[in-house]
Amino acid sequence: MNWDWNYTGKLIPDLLDGLRVTVTATLLGYLIALALGLVWTLLRRSPNPLVHQTVRWVTEFVRSTPLLVQLFFLFYVLPSWGITLGALTAGIVGLGLHYSTYTAEVYRAGIEDVPRGQWEAATALNLPRRRVWAGVVLPQAVRRVVPSLGNYLIALFKDTPFLFGITVTELLGSAFDEGAHTLKYLEPITVAGLFFIAVSVVSSLALRRLEKHYATH
Amino acid sequence: MSEVLDSYPLLLRGAWTTVQITVYGAVFALVLALAFGLAGTARGRLLRAVNRIYVEFFRGVAALVLMYWFFYALPLLGLRFTPIAAAVLAIGLNYGAYGAEVVRGSVEAVPRAQWEAACALNFTAAQRMRRVLLPQATALMLPPFGNLLIELMKATAGVSLVSIADLTFRAKQIQASTGQTAATFAVILVMYFVIAQALQVLVRIAERRTARMLGRGLPPRRSPAAAPAGEAVLP
């Protein structure tokens, strides 16, 4: 069987539509992951052992079970509890929830990496709690976590094909549907794969520049 | 709930398939990781280029897309695999690329003096790698390999979409026949969690054995997310 260039050309617009869905899901999911991860991190710092142990095990559970099954759970189980999410919404929430457990670890490591002396100095200067965080700890922690956070953005992007499992027509889904119409799977799936590689290679190059910019001296 | 638990033979068979794909995939990924990772530490430019191309290519493509490609596209080119072989190939190639970066990073993180000492003792390149660098690099590789193993196990759930009867696939069957959606998915989430914890225990045993082999204490546990390879070096 030969590669059909005409067919490939006709596919591109549909695949670009799929790519748009993929990118939307990636960005919105990542925003949820960034925000929710911060919530987990702050809750884990709670002095109440019940709270921080619960959060610890919940995040461990979410992190070590497959995203696909979590998506099934959100998409098929929640409606029976009265919460009906559209497929794309469920996918975005699932991605965000799954990756929030990773960003939480990143934040935690970033905060722990701030040298003890910085905390002590802030206490010695009698800074109010808000300024300790906003003026001393977070600016130093952020620089340390930017590279890892960027890696998880790329990882999240590469996990979006699982959304196809709950009927979202993202990049892989649109490629598969094209193939199912014509029974020619080679071109659409190959092109979809190349799109994935192109986006992730370009974004990892961008990330490496960002890393240099934020490098601690 | 009881209907779901009554279908435990189906769930156990699915779990066994998941474990099998995980193990085969991990072994294949490990072989690729060692081969391409060591190529990345070579002096020759060609070998290093081979490493870069492999890593950038297979790390860039999503595991599920690769699986679909092996499953639907390759047969059209005349290459036919059994479904499980296609899944293992896709997962192995993908995670092998991540592993190759870990191997390269760990070998490069072994203190340079070790390399120099081996040179001074007139070791050949192969001896240097096998007797001096790799044993020490192994201790650095194991914690990130442990994280990758869990990621690999999670990725195997994708094989249910190309109709391999793994745990997720069985769950969808049971859900369709009993209508117990919440219970079924809750049960398999717990099963996946148990598999992941078991894998973690195995990796920790391997870490302890390696540390003892090198006559070291165990490196401090680090958070899974933020530990780049090569930070846990002990004197």
UniProtKB/TrEMBL annotation, chain A:
Family: Belongs to the binding-protein-dependent transport system permease family.
Protein name per Swiss-Prot or TrEMBL: Ectoine/hydroxyectoine ABC transporter permease subunit EhuD
GO CC terms of this entry: ATP-binding cassette (ABC) transporter complex
UniProt keyword annotations, A-Z: Amino-acid transport, Cell membrane, Membrane, Transmembrane, Transmembrane helix, Transport
Single GO biological process annotation from the record: amino acid transport
PANTHER family: L-CYSTINE TRANSPORT SYSTEM PERMEASE PROTEIN TCYL, MEMBRANE COMPONENT OF AMINO ACID ABC TRANSPORTER
Gene3D superfamilies referenced in this protein's UniProt entry, alphabetically: MetI-like
Transmembrane intervals: 20-43, 71-97, 189-207
A Pfam family per the record: BPD_transp_1
Record membrane topology: Multi-pass membrane protein
Annotated ranges, domain ABC transmembrane type-1: 15-207
Domain of life: Bacteria
CDD domains: TM_PBP2
GO molecular function: transmembrane transporter activity
Major subcellular site: membrane
Cell location: Cell membrane
InterPro entries linked: AA_ABC_transptr_permease_3TM, ArtM/GltK/GlnP/TcyL/YhdX-like, Ectoine_EhuD, MetI-like, MetI-like_sf
Keyword Transmembrane helix found: yes
Native species: Actinomadura harenae
UniProtKB/TrEMBL annotation, chain B:
GO biological process, one term: amino acid transport
The UniProt record lists the keyword Transmembrane: yes
Region named Disordered: 216-235
Membrane-spanning parts: 20-41, 53-71, 77-97, 137-162, 182-203
This protein's UniProt keywords: Amino-acid transport, Cell membrane, Membrane, Transmembrane, Transmembrane helix, Transport
GO cellular component: ATP-binding cassette (ABC) transporter complex
PANTHER family assigned: L-CYSTINE TRANSPORT SYSTEM PERMEASE PROTEIN TCYL, MEMBRANE COMPONENT OF AMINO ACID ABC TRANSPORTER
One GO MF term attached to the UniProt entry: transmembrane transporter activity
Compartments where located: Cell membrane
Keyword Transport included in the entry's annotation: yes
Family, as annotated: Belongs to the binding-protein-dependent transport system permease family.
InterPro entries: AA_ABC_transptr_permease_3TM, ArtM/GltK/GlnP/TcyL/YhdX-like, Ectoine_EhuC, MetI-like, MetI-like_sf
Name of a matching Pfam family: BPD_transp_1
All residue ranges annotated as the ABC transmembrane type-1 domain in the record: 15-200
Protein's organism: Actinomadura harenae
SUPFAM superfamilies named among the record's database cross-references: MetI-like (SSF161098)
Gene3D superfamilies named in the record: MetI-like (1.10.3720.10)
Entry membrane topology: Multi-pass membrane protein
Name recorded for this polypeptide: Ectoine/hydroxyectoine ABC transporter permease subunit EhuC
CDD domains, alphabetized: TM_PBP2
